[in-house]
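Forum: Protein Structure Q&A
Topic: Joint prediction for protein chains with partners

I've read a bunch of threads here and the consensus seems to be that you should model interacting components together rather than docking separate models afterwards. I'd like to see that in practice. Below is the full input, 212 residues plus whatever partners are listed. Could one of the regulars post the assembled result?
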Amino acid sequence: MERYLTFALCKGRLAFQTLELLEKIGIHCEEMKDKSSRKLIFVNEDLKLKFFLAKGPDVPTYVEYGAADFGVVGKDILMEENRRIYEVLDLSFGKCRMCVCGPETSKEKLLHHEKIRVATKYPHIAKDYFFNKKHQTVDIIKLNGSVELGPLVELSDVIVDIVETGSTLKENNLVVLEEICPVSARLIVNQVSMQMNPERIKKIINGLRKIV
Ligand code: PRP
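Posted by a regular:
Agreed with the consensus. Here's the joint model:
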């Protein structure tokens, strides 16, 4: 009997965008389209596929440990989590930029390599950027969301965060000070699955590669 291939998806908009993409290569999961549902696992019996919805930062964890064969997750999370997985495809949606942001007045502090405070959901990315790339000593403060508050309440001088439309920054009188890297959704694969099930897995990767 053919085994199920499992996809770990990020709860929310990214999951719906992934479904739309998969539909273009004939992979459907009608049950998952119900936005009011609280269900976490969905099965397509005909195609022998399973899908589950996880918190973004946990997606690479499920894939590394083999609880999912595939995952779809932002490059920001992959860089932050640094899991042992194969990153196989840039899916070209979920596009945004990882940036250093803050009030205009913090620009000077960055230029003069002052010791500044950086608030972020991405401490590893921030550390790598300031310590390894810029050779600037900073204090990194981990937050779990609404990171833009950091400079507004004087917790930090700047933030490291993703910027999509820029409206959160604008509405809070903050600006992009430096750009770290572009971000988009990526398809990731468990390393053992790739060895054990190469035909089925490569068929899906190649199908998606043609349309992104
Ligand atoms: C993200 C990010 C920014 C915002 C950027 O937050 O952390 O705050 O979106 O988007 P924009 O440039 O289009 O305004 P998210 O909505 O994920 O919530 P969070 O602050 O709780 O992380």
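The longest strand covers residues 175-183.
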